[in-house]
Design goal:
The radius of gyration is 24 Å and the shape is flat. It contains twelve helices and two strands; from the N terminus they run αααβααααβααααα. The protein has helices at 13-40, 42-50, 59-71, 93-109, 111-122, 128-133, 137-166, 179-196, 199-208, 214-219, 221-235, 240-282; strands at residues 85-87, 176-178.
Length: 284
Amino acid sequence: MAKKLKNPSEMSFLDHLEDLRWHLIRATLAVVICAFVAFLAKDIVFDVLLFGPSKPDFPTYEYLCKAAKYLGMDESVCFTETPYEIQSRTMGGQFNAHVWTSILAGFIIAFPYVLWQFWKFIAPGLNPKEKQSSKGFIFSASILFFIGVLFGYYVVCPLSLNFLGNYQVSEIVKNQFDLSSYISLVRSTVIASGLIFELPILIFILVRVGLVTSNGLRKYRKISLVIIMVLSAIITPPDVVSLIIVTIPLFLLYELSIYIAKFTERKEEDTSAVAVKKDSNKNP
């Protein structure tokens, strides 16, 4: 006989921990399965994806070079040859890189399912109104995450590699990057960009719990722009072009967050007005 599910309000603290444990197990299993697939697809993951931004024929370099020529700018952004070598200097370096890169790829691929498991854990504790207003959460959060990953991979990562790969303090010093260092740069750039693009979702949650308002976001827009520029300077090479390229989409995300906050507030006001009207009809 199937075990009857408990009402969330009747579950003890240990029951909630047990429920969380199973959601974590399912999410971890999904990441492991996707990581195993990525492990088998080594040629695609490494030669095509991971080392793609290090090749001169990467699409980003071609577009930047064409744009520089069209605008009459310095063609230093043109990436005609790889000015560095990638090497592994430890016995287990390549195997460890293979394993951890596969796990990272597994997490990115399984992100919607991981998010869904997180949602299934917290959903029983929400009231019908909160569930209704949170429809599309998984889809929206997943789309924003994947857009951020692509932005990090096709924009931030090539800019960083182009700058750091060509940078020299002296012609005597040759750039020979360790495999772990290269992967660390790509990994941190891609994941950080994916998480940064979750800003509208974070703002939506903060508005729902009453910690942030659309007026407050507008009021501190200038301060937020400075913070965004500082954040962009941290995740990009120290040149003006890269800073502008990364700052613009992040600022647009902030403006989108203001719109989302305003829309959420208006929706809550309409719902409250309907509730008050119903109460007045019941108690004339």
